[in-house]
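FAQ

Q: What does a record look like?
A: Structure on top, sequence underneath. For example:
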């Protein structure tokens, strides 16, 4: 089994929060869908394990020169596409991009809120572990075993403000 930690939109200039360090150390692969902001954060992740990443719109010029805007990798026979901005929401545009990239899984960022959708493809936006929008701080986890892919969203902290999910207030008290 291969365990992958997926993150995006960390928007950090220096060190990674301890929770992200722990998750990254326990993964076989770390995927980042852009908006590290500073190369030091990319380097910190790379020190923890194998990182595959793309640049985001808020990344430094140094990262934009280092990282591609799109990337496709093969993990245990599963093709995973990585982009920062797939569209401004989930839906047909995101799935069309997955088909265009000829991937089984599309990981994307930019939204700062988690989305996980399975139609013909698995579409994952891990949200943001540090600057969430209308959601708790999150990352995603992908497990690949015998060609089967399981994706899940994982909270990595408490919400920083009130938000509504499934019609209930889950505000931090």
């Amino acid at each position: 089994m291969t365990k992958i930690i997926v993150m995006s939109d960390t928007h950090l200039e220096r060190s990674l929060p301890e929770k992200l360090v722990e998750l990254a150390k326990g993964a076989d692969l770390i995927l980042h869908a852009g908006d590290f902001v500073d190369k030091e954060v990319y380097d910190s992740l790379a020190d923890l394990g194998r990182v595959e990443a793309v640049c985001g719109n808020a990344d430094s010029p140094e990262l934009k020169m280092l990282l591609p805007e799109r990337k496709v990798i093969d993990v245990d026979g599963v093709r995973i596409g990585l982009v920062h901005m797939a569209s401004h929401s989930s839906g047909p545009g995101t799935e069309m991009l997955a088909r265009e990239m000829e991937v089984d899984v599309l990981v994307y960022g930019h939204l700062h809120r988690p989305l996980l959708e399975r139609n013909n493809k698995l579409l994952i936006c891990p949200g943001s572990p540090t600057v969430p929008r209308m959601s708790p701080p999150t990352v995603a986890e992908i497990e690949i075993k015998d060609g089967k892919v399981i994706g899940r969203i994982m909270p990595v902290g408490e919400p920083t403000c009130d938000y509504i999910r499934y019609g209930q207030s889950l505000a931090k008290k």
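Q: Is there anything notable about this one?
A: Helices lie at 18-25, 39-48, 61-66, 92-100.
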